[in-house]
Design goal:
The protein has 303 residues and is of the alpha/beta class. The chain has helices at residues 16-23, 52-57, 74-90, 102-110, 120-144, 149-152, 157-170, 174-178, 200-228, 243-250, 256-280, 291-299, and strands at residues 5-9, 29-33, 59-61, 94-99, 191-196, 286-288. A six-stranded parallel sheet has the order 3-2-4-1-5-6, with helices on both faces.
Length: 303
């Protein structure tokens, strides 16, 4: 079998997983997750993970691979993907990377700067220091360590902590590491990239109906269970679209209807940002407006 990798990308609710599952009817494939939130256990419905029945039909990798209390990163995901791709090849299956996390996909295709592993103790100290002294004082600490002011001026909490970890561990700036030559996991020519770019009005309608269906099918219970386990707002999994709104509904701050309306609006906004991102990034991709068009192309795709 020739070593190839297929990527199926696109905005949320565009039908990426449906396309991959339809492809499985004619090709021997393994589906590998490229969604930064579907990698966590705990919210399979709210994060739109493939169902148990779908995962029994086709080999799936990296769905619910981490606990809700862990934090994924591009670097961690790439290591997991490399192993999943190689496992797929060993089983004579075509690895199909499916997801909408553009940064993950771009680093897979274009390579990533090779920042050394950060000790868990350093990561813990960075998080605790940020919580103790707050964002402004934390920025001052970074400046004391030698970071450049203009580099960190507009960074959010997660990126500030990351900058601190790297500088503390390696004595070199995160931005210095970013300017080093990228490390490629796979040769760029083995990728075929399918990007779904559906009609925007139809996509937004799907976003609306999908969230309401999630609420009916168990998303509320999922969030309630995580809250009972003691999940806090700084956990990465809480960035799943709808988590905050369902939490507010459970704590009687908003009605169920308000939760649906707010979360649906956020989902539409996220889909719009994804459409814009994919339109301007990763030039070597094949863009299809309809799943049927992409499927017709892939039926002739040579493994």
């Amino acid at each position: 079998m020739t070593q190839k990798i297929l990527i199926i990308s696109g905005p949320t609710a565009s039908g990426k997983s449906a396309l991959a599952l339809e492809l499985a009817d004619s090709q021997d494939i393994a589906i590998i997750n490229a969604d930064s939130l579907q990698i966590y256990q705990g919210l399979p419905i709210l994060s739109s993970q493939p169902s148990n029945e779908e995962q029994k039909k086709v080999k799936h990798f990296l769905y619910s691979a981490l606990t809700p209390f862990e934090t994924s990163s591009v670097g961690m995901w790439l290591k997991l993907v490399k192993s999943a791709v190689e496992d797929s090849w060993q089983q004579n299956k075509l690895p199909v990377i499916v997801g909408g996390s553009g940064m993950y996909i771009s680093k897979l295709v274009e390579g990533i700067c090779e920042i050394p592993f950060i000790d868990e103790e350093v990561r813990r100290q960075a998080r605790e220091l940020f919580e103790e002294i707050g964002a402004q004082n934390f920025k001052a600490e970074l400046l004391n360590l030698g970071e450049e002011k203009e580099r960190i001026l507009n960074l959010d909490k997660q990126r500030l902590i990351r900058a601190y970890e790297v500088l503390k561990q390696t004595e070199k700036s995160f931005f210095w590491w970013q300017n080093q030559p990228n490390k490629m996991l796979f040769a760029e020519e083995i990728f075929t990239h399918i990007n779904l770019n559906p009609n925007r009005e139809r996509l937004y309608k799907t976003c609306n109906s999908r969230f309401e269906l999630m609420m009916k099918n168990g998303a509320i219970a999922e969030v309630e269970n995580l809250l009972d386990q003691g999940i806090t707002e700084d956990a990465a999994i809480t960035k799943t679209l709808g988590f905050i709104e369902i939490t507010d509904f459970l704590e009687k701050r908003i009605s169920e209807e308000e939760a649906i309306n707010i979360a649906s609006q956020k989902t539409r906004n996220y889909a719009k940002r994804q459409l814009t991102w994919f339109r301007n990034q990763l030039p070597n991709k094949l863009v299809f407006g309809e799943i049927s068009e992409a499927l017709n192309y892939l039926k002739d795709y040579e493994i």
